[in-house]
Amino acid sequence: MQKRFSVWTVGGMMLAGMLIGFQGKDLISADNIYEQLNKFKDVLVLAEKYYVDEVDTKKLTEGAIDGLIEKLDPHSVYFRPQAFQREAERVQGNYEGVGLQIRSLNDTIIVAEPMGGSPAARLGIMSNDRIVKIDDSSAVGLTTDQAASKLRGPKGTKVRVGIARPGVKELLTYEIVRDRISIVSVDVALMINDNVGYISVNRFDLKTAAEVEQALQKLSAQGMKRVILDLRNNPGGVMDQATRIADLFLDGGTKEKPRQIVFTKARRPELEEADTARSGDPFERVPVIVLVNNASASASEIVAGAIQDWDRGLIVGETTFGKGLVQRQWTFNDGSAFRMTIARYYTPSGRLIQRAYEGKDKSSYQREAFERNEEEGENIQHDNEAKRDSTRPIFKTNAGRVVYGGGGITPDYIVKPATLTENTLNLLRRDLFYEFVTAYLDREGRSLRSHYGSDLSSFIKNYTISPEMLNAFKTFIAEKKVVNNEQDFEKDKSFITSRLKAYVARAFWGNDGWYPVMLEVDTQFQKAISLLPEAARIAKLN
Length: 542
Prior knowledge:
The chain is globular. Residues 4-30 have low confidence and may be disordered. By secondary structure, it is of the alpha+beta class. It folds into 4 domains: 2-71, no CATH class; 94-182, Pdz3 Domain; 186-417, 2-enoyl-CoA Hydratase, Chain A, domain 1 (Alpha-Beta Complex); 422-521. The protein contains 20 helices and 23 strands.
């Protein structure tokens, strides 16, 4: 979780703590902040003056800051200027550029998707176009990051882009006026059938709650009566966005018993907060299921925890990451920033969902979230947790169901993703699905665009991956000198055909094309669909 804070309040505190990262044996008056600051200053001056080689004092200082943070917790972090610029764009949900999602493939920059309404999209740049020139320089051989850096720039400035389009002989030149580009946190919002809506949220930035509310309104106008909120692989972000999203589904309760969403505890009482729901949103009686997995963290866990503790719906998937810490951020004159944990947050029942990190290095702490041995199945009373770890503290939901703290949010129904063979995982790691479809669209893209136009529903219903195309894919794999186990290929055939079709759909319709195809082979999602009546029952909405 992250919150903003004045740099002046903490500047002295941060400098004072800098020496925590050092392991000197003879620290004198360790509790004297000024002695420690003077010691650090003396070491830095001596190193700059007498060290055998030239030293970069900035690097030494940043190394000291890294050492300080290493002694705090796994989620406090220092951002160097360039890294903080990227992080700020992520949190703010916008940047200045042309609005192209690109990727490098075989030394060529390929347009994966023009972002809707962006300057590049308005000019007619299309998926699968090759960017071969940026201004007067060749783009061949650039990495994705290098090309993105050249395409970005201040709003109102221009950049010339040379495009090689499959099926078009001449080079196409576009002069694009850069603009402010919104980075959406809602990947997709669509109707699964006549009354079930689906919303996928990839992070919590400053606009996420507004995006989710707009998505709910759109789907409601299309007949949505029940909804699945997908927070899988969502690492979290801005805390108040999580509380606002939870509030969309929770009424305010009563004066005697208001519906608390989350509260925090800190060493300094003035940093503590508590958020409660307010009544009046039109989605407070819509049955809801929240999909989560091991990579759902922080703000995602606030939403899931509030829904679970108030028995407002069901949580389905895998136990979440387990991050119950709140960070605040201080920025510095050189463009760097420090994000430090200042509080712990608790779900409405009083659960701290933060996993223990004391005595663990950061890599093992991160890894253990993905190495749980969970038993699949119904877990309404959370018996599975008691079997796995009887030491975790016990809490109760509003209806009296047992839930546990100290280890993330464990779902009410534990469902693991489909198990793929190592053969298919290797094809995914090598990015061969995308590479094959890119070559396929070079040949067939114009014909497919002509045939289906903007009719996604017709494509979903009628387009199939033919046996000939599957054989061509196998030939392509062999040409790449990748071993393909025929038996494993057949075992994962349903996933493989869906993945290929989804990449074709994404080229024309973006995520609106990708998700309907891939959700058909998504075991966690399919289970969630079947549990919507149970979600209504547990929320007493029948």
